[in-house]
Design a protein that fits this description.
By secondary structure, the chain is mostly helical. It has helices spanning about 20-25, 35-40, 55-70, 75-80, 85-95, and strands at about 5-10, 30-35, 45-50.
């Protein structure tokens, strides 16, 4: 994964989106479908495409642009968003509600 030029995930339905998140951890640029879960999980770290209204030339251009832009430093951002300490804190918040 870390040697990839780009990660492409064009899901219509996704539970969480761990694979694009892993790719970003390895500083691999990500192109994903514009669905709510990807917006929530990946924030502004990915390139989003509307898979319902995209044609092949546009998709090819998006991929080429993403690959040409190269790897970006996203590892620290992903780690700050999702780590064990933050997850434990969220769990404690939920537990303390009850």
């Amino acid at each position: 994964m870390s040697r990839s030029k780009c990660m492409l995930a064009l899901s219509k339905y996704e539970g969480f989106g761990i694979t694009p998140l892993e790719s970003l951890y390895f500083n691999v640029p990500v192109v994903v479908s514009d669905i709510p879960v990807f917006r929530e999980v990946l924030s502004n770290l990915a390139t989003y495409v509307d898979i319902e209204n995209i044609d092949l030339p546009t998709m090819a251009q998006t991929l080429a642009d993403t690959i040409r832009a190269g790897k970006v430093d996203t590892k620290d951002k992903v780690f700050r968003m999702y780590n064990a300490t933050k997850s434990a804190g969220k769990l404690l918040e939920i537990i303390n509600l009850y």
